[in-house]
UniProtKB/TrEMBL annotation:
Species annotation: Aquimarina atlantica
Residues of the Pyridoxamine kinase/Phosphomethylpyrimidine kinase domain: 14-249
Entry-linked SUPFAM superfamilies: Ribokinase-like (SSF53613)
UniProt entry tagged with the keyword Kinase: yes
Protein name per Swiss-Prot or TrEMBL: hydroxymethylpyrimidine kinase
A single cellular component GO annotation: cytosol
Keyword DNA-binding carried by entry: no
Length: 258
């Protein structure tokens, strides 16, 4: 029997299980990894409505991370919603102290599909500058960033999308999801830190919108990385798996293969 790699997701809990850590674990398990999870937030939501978010205290998050690393060999981590970039930096530092060679895929969830704002600038320019500085620190510590078009527009308010892409790709690998494009919807792009660019066009025609699709994609990519695939192939396979989930039914909650 082939031993499955342990993959840790650090993310929020979604009671509908379409997004967050439960969706991550379902994806990881479907692709033959073993999913471990650390909860960063308890959310009150379903597939169409986001009511509120109760953030988990950092010490609790750290204790969850500690006890998992004490027991399991973890080389791959996916991170979803976190209260802010400052807390995210602290979480990443804890993980890197456990394993400084670990690969981290960050899915920067800034706003829910129902417009709940996780990271608010509050119109304060100094606060915005602090946030961007904290985000810069994050970029130097992660292996891959997976924003969608709405999210990448908000990461650097003083830059165009093209400038933001170039800036991020100068620091780490960037997988830009195309589900929110105004044109060529579904066309994803990978920008690598060695200045290469790859385009992933959609293949399936019967795709419908799904709650948590970004969680599924980032979890699929980290799982394929853990299975030994290089970045380009992991991204390609991750997109194809996500398309299978998107085409699994016509509801907002996708089905995963067993």
């Amino acid at each position: 029997m082939i031993k499955r790699p342990y993959i840790l997701t650090i993310a929020g809990f979604d009671p509908s299980n379409g997004a967050g850590l439960t969706a991550d674990v379902k994806t990881i398990e479907a692709l033959k990894g073993y999913g471990l999870s650390v909860c960063t937030a308890n959310t009150i939501q379903n597939d169409v409505e986001f009511a509120s978010c109760e953030w988990i205290d950092f010490d609790v998050i750290k204790n969850q991370i500690d006890i998992l690393f004490d027991r399991f060999a973890i080389d791959f981590v996916k991170i979803g919603i976190v209260q802010n970039w400052e807390v995210l930096n602290q979480i990443i530092d804890v993980v890197l102290e456990k394993n400084n060679a670990i690969k981290i895929v960050l899915d920067p969830v800034l706003k829910s599909s129902s417009d709940f704002d996780f990271h608010s600038y509050n119109g304060d320019l100094n606060n915005q500058n602090t946030i961007e500085k904290q985000f810069e620190e994050v970029l130097h510590k992660i292996y891959l960033l997976t924003p969608n078009y709405n999210e990448i527009e908000r990461l650097y308010t003083g830059k165009t999308i093209e400038e933001t892409i170039a800036h991020i790709a100068n620091k780490t690998n960037l997988f830009l999801k195309g589900g929110h494009r105004k044109e060529t919807i579904g066309k994803d792009e990978l920008f690598t830190s060695d200045e290469k660019q790859f385009v992933f066009n959609p293949k399936r025609q019967n795709i419908s919108e799904k709650h948590g699709s970004g969680c599924v994609l980032s979890s699929a990519i980290i799982t394929y990385l853990a299975l030994g695939f290089p970045l380009l192939k992991a991204c390609y396979r991750g997109k194809r798996y996500t398309e299978k989930v998107l085409s699994s039914n016509n509801s907002l909650l996708g089905y995963h293969r067993i």
